């Protein structure tokens, strides 16, 4: 069994960065981590961690550049498959836990703080997310979205969940990257029920995300689904022109498998929450 080098929070940041940008030298990785991943350590600390990860065969090193070792990813995939994450609501399901074997995809670790869940359909993914929101009892909830899909799929349920959160005195923000007429209509709806809804092109992530008090959801939707949603939102000048039947067919289709990365690493959750709140001002 390949183990991570000690309990090093920077391992998570390194894997996240190298899963989307590779190969990188230690200097380039250091700059990237400081600019985009709230890395607060020294270059020397990063270099030592990289050496440990290379010795543990988590990373490969070609001359002076590092990549995630696909053999390590495969072993982590086998480990993750032992986890049992259950989706409640309706029939109980056991989605497969997996890691993509291609290092350019998001990486998860076999640790109680970080888990990955695969979903066959967007509907299953959204059901899981909504269930977590509905039963949430923390102090703050922040969502980063491309467009407001729940607003289209089930507006009444979405309003009910948000009103419930408001009654629990939960501070709730939505940061929406889109600014189409449908996004603007969604903004009016959410503001009417007490949710702070921000149309902003300043996004922290290339994917959608949800930040709870102690948990960070990173939502990696299928690229074809992202393209489809973008097309739907840009082509519909209003809700009256939106094709609900076509959207529902894709929403329930198994053609768009997606992955949810659940991160409970306190340092990362706190940093992401802090940066997100700055965008909400």
Write a structural description.
- The strands form two sheets. A seven-stranded mixed beta sheet has the order 4-10-9-8-5-6-7, sandwiched between helices.
- It has eleven helices and ten strands.
- It is globular.
- It has two domains: 9-75, Arc Repressor Mutant, subunit A; 114-279, 2-Layer Sandwich (Endonuclease, Chain A), CATH 3.30.870.
- It has 281 residues and is of the alpha+beta class.
- The model is unreliable at 1-8 and 82-111 (pLDDT under 50).
- It is 44% helix and 17% strand.
- The chain has helices at residues 9-20, 26-36, 43-55, 70-80, 122-134, 149-153, 155-167, 181-192, 223-235, 244-251, 266-279, and strands at residues 24-25, 59-62, 65-68, 114-119, 140-145, 171-176, 196-199, 208-211, 216-220, 258-263.
Helices and strands, with pairings:
Layout: H1 9-20, E1 24-25, H2 26-36, H3 43-55, E2 59-62, E3 65-68, H4 70-80, E4 114-119, H5 122-134, E5 140-145, H6 149-153, H7 155-167, E6 171-176, H8 181-192, E7 196-199, E8 208-211, E9 216-220, H9 223-235, H10 244-251, E10 258-263, H11 266-279
């Amino acid at each position: 069994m390949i183990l991570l080098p000690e309990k090093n929070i920077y391992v998570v940041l390194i894997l996240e960065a190298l899963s989307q940008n590779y190969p990188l030298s230690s200097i380039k990785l250091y700059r990237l981590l400081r600019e985009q991943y709230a890395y607060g350590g020294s270059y020397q600390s990063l270099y030592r961690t990289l050496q440990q990860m290379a010795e543990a065969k988590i990373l490969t090193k070609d001359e002076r550049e590092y990549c995630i070792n696909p053999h390590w990813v495969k072993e982590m995939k086998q480990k993750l498959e032992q986890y049992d994450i259950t989706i409640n609501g309706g029939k109980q399901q056991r989605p497969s836990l997996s890691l993509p074997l291609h290092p350019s995809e998001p990486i998860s670790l076999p640790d109680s703080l970080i888990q990955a869940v695969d979903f066959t359909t967007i509907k299953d993914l959204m059901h899981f997310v909504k269930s977590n929101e509905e039963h949430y009892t923390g102090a703050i909830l922040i969502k980063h979205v491309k467009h407001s899909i729940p607003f289209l799929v089930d507006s009444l349920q979405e309003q009910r969940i948000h009103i419930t959160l408001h009654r629990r005195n939960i501070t709730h923000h939505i940061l929406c990257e889109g600014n189409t007429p449908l996004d603007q209509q969604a903004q009016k709806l959410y503001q009417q029920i007490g949710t702070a809804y921000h149309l902003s092109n300043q996004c922290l992530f290339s994917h959608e995300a949800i930040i709870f008090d102690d948990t960070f959801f990173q939502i990696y939707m299928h690229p074809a689904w992202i393209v489809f949603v973008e097309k739907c939102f840009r082509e519909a000048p209003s809700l009256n022109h939106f094709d609900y039947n076509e959207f529902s067919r894709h929403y329930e289709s198994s053609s768009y498998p997606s992955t949810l990365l659940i991160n409970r690493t306190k340092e990362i959750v706190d940093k992401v929450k802090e940066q997100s709140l700055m965008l909400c001002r």
